[in-house]
Amino acid sequence: MEEEDQRKVTDLVVDLVRRLLPQQNPNSPHFSQSLRYALRILSSCLNPSISPDADAIAESIKRRLATLGNSSDALTFADLYTKFASKNGPGSVHNKWAVLYLLKIISEDRKTAKNGMDFSFLLPNLGLNDDEMGNNVRVLNGKDNREKGWKNGVLLVSKDPENLREISFREFGNLVKEENEVTEEVLVRDVLYACQGIDGKYVKFDSNLGGYALLDSVKVPRATRIIVRKLCELGWLFRKVKGYISESMDRFPAEDVGAVGQAFCAALLDELSEYYKLLAVLEAQSMNPIPLVSENASSGNYLSLRRLSVWLAEPMVKMRLMAVLVDKCKVLRGGAMASSIHLHAQHGDPLVHDFMRQLLRRVCSPLFEMVRSWVLEGELEDIFAEFFIVGQPVKAESLWREGYRLHAGMLPSFISQSLAQRILRTGKSINFLRVCCDDRGWAAAATEAAAAAGTTTRRGGLGYGETDALESLVMEAAKRIDKHLLDVIYKRYKFKEHCLAIKRYLLLGQGDFVQYLMDIVGPELSEPANTISSFKLAGLLESAIRSSNAQYDDPDILDRLRVKMMPHGSGDRGWDVFSLEYDARVPLDTVFTESVMMRYLRIFNFLWKLRRVEHALIGAWKTMKPNCITSHAFTKLQRAVKLQLLSTLRRCQVLWDEMNHFVTNLQYYIMFEVLEVSWSNFSNEMEVAKDLDDLLAAHEKYLHSIVEKSLLGERSQTLYKSLFVLFDLILQFRYHADRLYEGIHELQARTVESSLNSRDKKKSRRQEKDKSSEPGSWISEGRKALTQRASEFLQNMGQDLEALATEYTSSLESFLAHLPVQQHIDLKFLLFRLDFTEFYSQQHPTV
Amino acid sequence: MDPEAARTARESLDLAFHMSNILDTGLDRHTLSVLIALCDLGLNPEALAAVVKELQSEPPPSPPLPTSSSQIP
Questions:
Q1: By three-state DSSP, how is residue A217 classified?
Q2: A:124-153 residues touching chain B, CB 8 A cutoff
C-alpha cells in the first residue's frame, strides 16, 4: 500500500509539474531539475505548522476577503465552504483543511508576488541555472535590506547546497526531544497539582528542601527546573495555610480557638475557595489546547509554564500574605490577633491593602460585636476570653472600682487607649445602674445613643475600618449613659445631700449641734472608756439632735448618723474613742468606701479634739470672768498676798489669752480656709462632673485637700505632733485655771466666813487660808495661817502656771517655726493669722 | 467508482475550483485536482504551495488566467 501510494504521489507530482510548466518539454533537463526540486521540497517539510482545523482556516480566509473589501466574495466563499465541508463519503476530499490551507497560501503568495516583493526565504534557493541563480542572488541581496518578514526566523546568508540547515534542525529537534523526557503539558499539570498540595508524577514534596521540586531523576533543562521550583513555592505556601486551617478546625470542639480565630479561619477558607476556582479554570485550560488562527503561532498547549507563572503571580502574592499572617497568628488569639493582622495591613500596595482590609473585616467582626453589646447593653459575651474588658465577680460596693478592667494584651491596636477607657466606663455604668441602682432607664438611653450614631442596636452594625463609626457610637452611648447615671445618683440617691450631711455632722459643720453634743456628752467622756455604754451615748446623740437645728433635717439622713466607739485599750478615756459615723448604703458606698470613711473618721477625731480644746478654754473663760468673788478677795487679803494673787491672776489671764488666740485662729483656719474652701471647690466640680469617674476623682481631691491642709497628712507629721502637744498643754492649763479659781473661791469663802465669825480680819484670813489647804483644819488656824496658806497656794499656782507658760511658749514657737517650712500646702494663712502682729517673729527671730 | 462517489468528487472539485477562483490562485481545474489528490495522500500543503510558487515564478507566468467571472457550476 505504501509503495502504491508512493508511486501515485510521484505520478501526481510529475503531472503537477507538467501542468505548472506547460511550455516545457517533459523530457528537457529543466523539467527533470524542476521535478527533482519539487520532490526535495515536498520531502523537507513533513509537518504542517498549524493545527488541522478546517473551520478556523475558512474563517481566516473569510476575514481576509472581508477586510480586502470583497464582502460579496466573502459571502460566496462562505457559502461554498459550507457546501464543500458537507460533502462526506467516498469520493470526497478527506483532507479538507489541507486543501483550504493550500488555496490560502497560494493566493497569498500570488498576491505578494504581484506586489513585487519576493519572500522566497522559506527555502534555500537552489539556483536552477547560473543566470537565474545570479539573478536570484542579486534579488536576494538587493531585497535584503528591505525585507521585513521572516517566515521561520532564519536568515539565509549563503547558499546551502548540502542542506546543512536541514540537518542541524533535525539534530536540534532530536536533542530537545532527548532532554525533554517529559513534555511541558505534563509538567504544567504536575505544577497545578502541587499548587493544591498534592504530589504529582514528577513534582513531589521534598522534605529536605521543605518544598515541592522536580525529582532529580527527571531530565529536564535547567531553565524548566528553575521555573517549576519557583511555581511550586505557591504549593508550599498553600500547604502552610491549609495546615493551619485544618489544625485550628480540629481544635474548635476543644474550645481552644476563640471567636476571632474562627473568623480568621473562615476568611482564609473563603480566599482559598477563590484560589481553587482559579486553579480549576487553569486545569481546564491545560487540558484543551486552544487553536490559534494566526499562521505563525506555535501549536501545542495553550498553557505553558510561562503562561502559568503569569497567571499565578497574583495568587502567589495573596498566598504569601496569608502564610505570613498564619505564622504570626499561630499563638495569638482575640484582640492580640486582630492587632497583629492590623499591623500587616499598613501597606502601600492597593492589592495588599484591599485584601487585608477584607480579611480584617471578617476577623474583627466578633470583636466589634462584643464592643457593641458591651456598650449598649452592658453584656460581656466573651466565652473565649478574647475581649479587652475583663470582669470579675465582686461585691456590689466595689463593682465600680474593681469589677471591670482593661486587659491591655487583648486591646487591638486600632482602638486607642482613650476610646477603650470610654468603652469600659460606659459598660461599667450600665452594669452599675443595673446592679447597684436597680435602674432600668438605661435601655432607653442606649437605643437613643444607637439611633444618634446611625447604627442600630441589632447585631452586625459595625465592622473594621469603621473605627470612626464605632467611636461615634461609643461617644453617644457614653454621653447618654453617663448623664443618666449622674441623674440617678443625684436625684434618686441624693448624693449631694448626703455629702452635705457628712460635712455637717462628721466634719462638725453644724455648729449648734456640735455645741449641744459636746455639752451633753462631755462629762460622760471623761470617764474611762470601758465604762461608757454606747447606748447611753446614742441616747445623748438623739437629744442633741433634737435640741439643735439638726432636727429639721431629712429623717433619712439623721437615720444614718450613729455613735461609734472605737476599739480601745485600758487607759483610754472616752474622749479618745468617741466618734460619729455615717452609714452610706449602696450605691453611694461606691464613693464612700471603707477607706474613705476611715479618713473621714480621722478628720472627725482631729476636729473633735480641736473642739474639745476650744470648749475647755471657753469653760475656763467662764470661770475667769471678773466677778465679785474675785474682786472681793482683793479687798480682804493682805497686801503681799494681794500682789501675788494679782500677779497670778494676771499670768493666768495672759496665758489664757494666748491660748485662746491660738485656738481661735486655728479653728478659723480649719473651718473656713480648709473645710469651706474645699467644699466649694467640690461643689463646683460636682456641677460639672460628667460621669462617675469624675465624681470619684473630685471627691478624692476634696478629701485629700482637707487631710493635707489640716495637717493630718504624712508630710505634716511633726507639725501634727507639736499641735497635739499644744492641745495637751491647753487642757492642762484648763485644769490649773480651774484649780486656781477654785482655790480663790475657797479662799474667798473662808475669808467671808472668818469675817463673819471673828471681828479680827487677820483671824478670819488665817482661818480661810487654813481652809484652803486643809479643809478640816482651816477654822482652827488664824488669819496668819490663812495668809500663809494663800500665799503658798498662790505661789505654787504661780509656779505651775509659769512652767506651763514656758512650755507652751516653746511648743508654740516650734510649731510656728515649722509652719513656713511646709511647702506642700498653703499654711501662710494660718501663719498670718497667728502672727499678724509679728509678735512671735519679733520675739524669736528664727520664726 | 460508483456514480455517487463520482458525482461527489465532481461537485467537490467544482466547489474547490470556485473557491480557488475567488481567492485568485491562478490554478486551473486540472492542476487543482492534482493538488487535491496530493493533499489527500497526506502531503504537506505548505510544501505543495511552495512547489507551486517556485515553479510558477521562474518563467513568466504564462498560462493565461481563467477569467474571474467563471461559470458558476
A1: coil
A2: 128, 132
Cβ of B22 within 8 Å of Cβ of A105? The answer is: no
Q: Taking CB atoms and an 8 Å cutoff, what residues of chain A touch B37?
A: 8, 12
Q: Containing domain of residue A446, as a range?
A: 341-492
Distance (Å, whole) CA A282 – CA A304: 11
- pLDDT for B21-41, tens place per residue? 888 888 888 888 888 888 888
Angle among Cα A719, A513, A665 to the nearest 5 degrees reads: 30
Return the residue of A nearest to B64 by Cα.
A22
Q: Do A20 and B31 touch (CB under 8 A)?
A: yes
- Whether A19 sits inside 8 A of B30 (CB atoms) is yes
Please give, one letter per residue, the 3-state secondary structure of A572-616: CEHHHHEEEEECCCCCHHHCCCHHHHHHHHHHHHHHHHHHHHHHH
Task: Tell me, yes or no, whether A327 and A353 share the same domain.
Answer: no
Indicate whether A101 pLDDT > 80.
Answer: yes
Say yes or no: A318 and A353 in one domain.
Answer: no
Neighboring chain B residues of A12 at a CB cutoff of 8 Å: 34, 37-38, 41
A810 and A672 both lie in a single domain: yes
CA–CA separation, A120 vs A279, rounded Å?
Answer: 45
A314 in Cβ contact with A231 (< 8 Å)? no
Digit-coded pLDDT (tens) for A433-463: 887 777 677 777 777 777 776 655 555 555 6
- Over residues A695-710, the pLDDT tens digits come to 888 989 998 888 888 8
A545 located within any domain: no
The confidence band for A680, taking pLDDT boundaries of 50, 70 and 90, is: very high
Nearest CA in chain A to B58: A132
- ipTM, 2 decimals? 0.76
